[in-house]
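Reader question, answered in our methods column.
A reader sent in the components of a multi-part assembly and asked whether the whole thing could be modeled at once rather than chain by chain. We filled in our standard form and ran it. Here is what they sent:
COMPLEX SIZE: two components
ENTRIES:
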Amino acid sequence: MTAEPPSAFAYLGPAGTYHDEAARAFAKRLGIDDPQLIECPSLSEVFDCVDRGKCEYGVVATENALEGPVTATLDNFAFRSSATILGEHVLDIHHCLIMHPEATLNDVKTVASHPQGLAQCRRYLNDNLHGIPTVTVASTADSARRAASDKSVAGIGNDFAAQLYGARVAETGIEDHFGNQTSFALIGRQGHVPVLTGSKFKTSLALFLQADRPGALLMILSEFAYAGINLVKIQSRPTKQALGDYMFFVDIEGSTQDLEVQTALNCLRLKLREVKVLGSYPVE
Amino acid sequence: MTAEPPSAFAYLGPAGTYHDEAARAFAKRLGIDDPQLIECPSLSEVFDCVDRGKCEYGVVATENALEGPVTATLDNFAFRSSATILGEHVLDIHHCLIMHPEATLNDVKTVASHPQGLAQCRRYLNDNLHGIPTVTVASTADSARRAASDKSVAGIGNDFAAQLYGARVAETGIEDHFGNQTSFALIGRQGHVPVLTGSKFKTSLALFLQADRPGALLMILSEFAYAGINLVKIQSRPTKQALGDYMFFVDIEGSTQDLEVQTALNCLRLKLREVKVLGSYPVE
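And here is the structure of the entire assembly that came back:
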């Protein structure tokens, strides 16, 4: 009998990222008070940690309301990993201007953040730090860490990172679009028992077509329509074989425990190259 | 009568990018021997140049075989610009290791490139420059420029950029996936007369749904199927209003000059919030 993998959470680090926040939220929902959190340098390594049983759970961003799907996550689900989605968590994204505790706006010579942090606060930077050069760093947490140690650097990230690294939040809610959100998936090893309950379920699928065949997507949507299953989301991704060759990610309402979902998936299995069930989990 | 905009090409600079290569390819197809090329710092500014009549043409990447759609381009088409697609060009992407003319591999202390250049040559870097730190720069052309002036920096980009900046191509075809391609669109101001001819046409559309309505995508695909129109591509993008709220980019075979295309689009106009025709242009 092999040892159970420790009930730790692998997430895209460093400490203080939005991934870190999401991992703590999942731990709370699982009733784990003092979760063991394992920083990973890339999303692929979060998947590897879970697939190899090094961590029981992984937390990966799947989609941002402004930027769209997180393609590195989708590619891992489609082409690399056998992990199962156990749950989802939607995080409100509020960027803060983060500064050294003793710095004022006049001290700022550079604004450092993740490219998306900079892009999502363009209007604020233009109005308040006009002409100040921006530099990209690997994460919003890194930008908080740099701001905490250098008066001439302002960062953009969440207030959690600012606190963690001992920096000051000079202003909150500096994002251009109000209402920005990121959706995260809790993943476990293939076959992991469900850990979250709910009244409504969702099932995520990766569908691989037979060599480019006209009408395939229409057929897929018709199967779900006939079964009375609502689509939550559909997203195409290149298969990386040739330009214009796609596979589809589809989220449907319902669980693989439901008879109508089973029937629709069995019909699709007869016609498609592969139907990969990424997981059935409660809608948040 | 206003002056005609100069027949210049706006592209995502600096000189030596893959955009630059694509702009030259379009100019050649238009029979322009010595094209005036205008560098822009962002894709949005390429669109602005065209929309404001500062340049007659713009060149924007639409999709890469590995990375998928270029979201900044799609968002400009959907939400900002009224430009028309006049043509497409598919460029084979072959990355080179670019070095100072007098440097050898032993001199290299850093590998600098655009994040996609680095990501697409990961295996080569691991096998040949293992442990050498990588830094990201704004473009593959920038990486060639840096390599040309610093023996300790190796860049990753096209041989065109290496030549342009006086650097040396140390190795060609260093990309992990052979057969990588990027598709570019030639854009002109709304209503621009067609400039390229061909036997087969393609039409690009941006479709905006009425507030989230189940079955909308099935209805869209059914309209095209009934009209006997093949779909080339479909891509969803967030509307940036709320997580899970999408619009669709659809490429279909045929031209808006074709009766069956006109009928299908008129049917869709009766049901959707907006049908934006991005252009009809010859298939390359």
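What stands out: Chain A touches chain B at residues 63-68, 71, 90, 136, 177, 179, 181, 183, 214-215, 217-218, 221-222, 225, 230-238, 240, 242-244, 246 (CB under 8 Å). The mean pLDDT of chain A is 91.
Send us your own complexes using the same form.
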